[in-house]
Design goal:
Bound molecules: 6-O-phosphono-beta-D-glucopyranose
Distance between the termini: 36 Å
GO molecular function, one term: glucose-6-phosphate 1-epimerase activity
Keywords: Isomerase
Structural class: mainly beta
Strand content: 35-45%
Pfam families: Aldose_epim
Helix content: under 10%
Radius of gyration: 19 Å
Protein name: Glucose-6-phosphate 1-epimerase
GO cellular component, one term: cytoplasm
Number of strands: 24
């Protein structure tokens, strides 16, 4: 049972919307709709004053204002450190957990019970430091840069704006808006909407950043995905030919190069940005699983394994991050949308 104060935080500041949240775009549509930055004519949220339910082309949505009513397969509970988390369960047997702090997906279990994500043993759940593991956000800065490492979205509380069932599977949408904390680092008004949709063998996320200010802003971003692995057996396919920015040895002065390998492996420390990455990478996690990480509009990728810098856990994970490294400019009212799908094949 969630403590009342936590429940209030979980229910968040914004009323859930039910009418206009679209199912995840098929890849081709997402690409067409968002080649770079697109202007959406109308705001995304339509608020309701009482719980209600709508059904449109396979989408069932349930939401309430100030009441704990979510779509079937979606619940809010108390997680580590008393932080609220969303639990989503698919009737196909997969499940995921998302902390409102950082909108961080910390667990994604496929029907055989395996959790394909990894949370570092040094992760703290105190609502102060970002959660080190799962899929943290890097926004509005990937870094290094003038702001704190990876920006602020991973250490702010997001709120739930929508929950729905799409063709039998649950999905939730979280929202982040600027506040005094974000403005102390980045003085802009913005809205981030993050939709997480569970399927039997895949997890999709759609991130939409909207400039709600009256002046343009620039940002970059990444989904810093920690994938459970056995590092000596890990390989990532699909990056051959990409321009690389190798952050080893100096992250502030990365070395330019080109990836020549069909398969990238992790025999030691790796911290490398791949510019113009393809829309699909194949990861062998070294544990017997093949995972396809596909995306629309995340133009770049990052591979990271800390090796002996994190002696206690480096063997157990690899970060394969979809990223937008080259700075993106959004004019007032413009939005940028990017989608990621992680699929066990
Ligand atoms: O420990 P953090 O702040 O989550 O960052 C971990 C790493 O994240 C990676 O994305 C960066 O490329 C690395 O340079 C960085 O060290």
């Amino acid at each position: 049972m969630l403590a009342p104060s936590l429940l209030l935080r979980a229910l968040g500041k914004a009323p859930p919307s039910t009418e206009v949240s679209a199912p995840l775009l098929p890849r081709s549509q997402a690409e067409m709709a968002a080649p770079c930055a697109l202007t959406l004519p109308s705001p995304l949220s339509v608020s309701s004053s009482s719980p209600r339910r709508s059904r449109r082309s396979g989408v069932v949505a349930m939401a309430s204002v100030g009441q704990k009513v979510y779509a079937p397969g979606v619940a809010v509970s108390e997680g580590n450190g008393g932080l609220p988390k969303i639990d989503i369960k698919s009737p196909h047997g997969s499940e995921a957990e998302i902390y409102l702090f950082g909108a961080c997906v910390t667990s994604w279990k496929v029907p055989n019970g395996k959790d394909l994500l990894f949370v570092r043993p040094d992760a703290v759940f105190n609502g102060q430091k970002p959660i080190s593991g799962g899929i943290p956000h890097c926004f509005p800065q990937f870094g290094p840069g003038p702001m704190q490492q990876h920006g602020f979205a991973r250490n702010m509380n997001w709120s739930i704006t929508d929950s729905e069932v799409i063709e039998g599977d649950p999905a939730v949408t979280l929202e982040l808006k600027d506040d005094s904390y974000s403005r102390s680092m980045w003085d802009f008004s913005f809205q981030a909407l993050y939709k997480v949709a569970l399927h039997s063998t895949s997890l999709s996320t759609t991130l939409k950043i909207t400039n709600t200010d009256d002046k343009p802003f620039s940002f970059n971003s990444a989904l810093h995905s920690y994938i459970r692995a056995s590092i000596s057996g890990v390989s990532v396919k699909g990056l051959k030919g990409c321009k690389t920015l190798n952050k080893d040895p100096d992250p502030t002065n990365p070395l330019e190069g080109k990836e020549e390998r069909e398969e990238v492996t992790f025999p030691g420390f790796v911290d490398c940005v791949y510019l113009g990455a393809p829309s699909e990478l194949t990861l062998d996690n070294g544990l017997g699983d093949k995972i396809v990480i596909s995306n629309a509009n995340w133009s770049d990728a990052v591979l990271w394994n800390p090796h002996l810098q994190m002696e206690a856990c480096y063997k157990d994970f690899v970060c394969v991050e979809n990223a937008k490294i080259e700075t993106l400019l959004l004019e007032p009212k413009q939005s940028w949308v990017a989608e990621q799908k992680i699929e066990l094949i």
